[in-house]
Amino acid sequence: MVTTVIVAILVIGALIFVHELGHFLAAKLLKVKVEVFSLGFGPRLIGFKAGETEYRLSLIPLGGYVKLYGEHPETIPLVEKPERAFAFKKPWEKAIIVIAGPLANFILAVFIFWLLFASVGSFILPAKIGEVMPGSPAEKAGLKPGDEIIKVNGKKVKSFQELVFLLRSKKISKSVILTIKRKDQIFEVNIKPELKEGYNIFGKKTKVPIIGIKSTQEIIHQKYDIISAFNLAVKKVVELTGLIFVAIYKLFTGEIPFSTLGGPITIGKMAGETAKMGISYLLSFTALLSVNLGVINILPLPMLDGGHLVLFGIEAIRRKPLSLKTQELIFKIGLFLILALSIAVFYNDILKLLRGWRLP
Which residue from 44, 46, 71, 354 has the highest number of Cβ atoms inside 10 Å of its Cβ? Predict the structure, then answer.
């Protein structure tokens, strides 16, 4: 338990630090005075001042912030040095400072995956058939154990996981063309998958396309040079970003139940579990969380970085910022939404804990 808490604090703290560091460095680059750099919210626990910035650790470890000179609407009348104030910067300059936080999280994720691919490589389950289920579409199409599926509808397949993803990312009601390699022979087969009850890529119980094959037990250890590892890391982050956006959309449409969301307790538990599996698993989980943090923060919601970007876009179009009263109203709405979401995910966390306590 203690180990789980420590790991969770370190992982979440690192991600928050990197995010706020992005804002901090961009502000410094654009000559905006940074008054406070804080890990955590609420009352200050410890800290020190270096130059014009106070660096502090605050009581509530659920985030962090960078306080910029002249950032909040109510402080604008008190600004004595407009050239150092955030509010008096051009919209594109303010946008750079805001987007730098999520960008730092994406960069961290790329770096972690790059490090893992370059040092450890990856372990791939090849798209090779280990077993063909009796009476399945695969058996009817003449597929046999040992056959390797190299393309799905003309798209190259490199692993069994990728094959499943392609078949289940969209419901396939029509036939699918598989390119098969059998020893030295390459040919195509036309298969119409059966829709059976299962789970989609987001874990929701639904009807999924089944062709009736199982993978082999063979595992391929793939190694990469530095360039290939970097390209693969970028591709991995792009794919994860796309999946997270799709998942968010499905949350709003109800295709994914809201109860699947987890908060700090769930994240902490998962961090502890991955730490027990090894450092490479913990680093992969950290990279995934970093992508999540980056995506969530660029959503166009008040209080989030994406919401600020929307305001700066409006300011650029109007050639002047929104009135202080309007900005305050928007931020109050955003604060309400963030608090409501926080309460909801904490509620989910508590329910999961209670269910766990009831387990034998």
Answer: 71
282-331: pLDDT as tens digits? 898 899 989 989 998 998 887 788 888 888 888 888 888 777 778 778 77
The single-letter code of the amino acid at 75 is T
Closest CA to 308 of 290, 324, 327, 289: 327
For every residue of the chain, which 3-state class applies, written as one string?
CHHHHHHHHHHHHHHHHHHHHHHHHHHHHCCCCEEEEEEEEEEEEEEEEECCEEEEEEEEEEEEEEEECCCCHHHHHHCCCHHHCHHHCCHHHHHHHHHHHHHHHHHHHHHHHHHHHHHCCEEECCCEEEEECCCCHHHHCCCCCCCEEEEECCEECCCHHHHHHHHHCCCCCCCEEEEEEECCEEEEEEECCEEEEEECCCCCEEEEEECCEEECCCCEEECCCHHHHHHHHHHHHHHHHHHHHHHHHHHHHCCCCHHHCCCHHHHHHHHHHHHHHCHHHHHHHHHHHHHHHHHHHCCCCCCCHHHHHHHHHHHHHHCCCCCHHHHHHHHHHHHHHHHHHHHHHHHHHHHHHHHHHHCC
67 beta partners: 36
341 residue type, one letter: L
Calculate the average pLDDT of the chain.
83
Span 77-119, pLDDT tens digits? 777 888 898 888 888 999 999 999 999 999 999 999 999 999 9
pLDDT the model gives residue 268: 65
Per-residue pLDDT tens over the stretch 177-192: 889 999 889 999 998 8
Give the pairing type, strands 205-210 and 213-215.
unpaired
Residue 110 to residue 286: CA distance in whole angstroms: 11
Whether residue 20 lies in the annotated active site: yes
Domains of the chain are 2-120+260-358 (no CATH), 123-221 (2.30.42.10)
Other beta carbons within 10 Å of 223: 12
| Cβ-contact 18, 66 below 8 angstroms | no
Angle, vertex CA 215, rays to CA 209 and CA 217, nearest 5: 160
> What does DSSP say about strands 194-199 and 205-210: parallel, antiparallel, or unpaired?
antiparallel
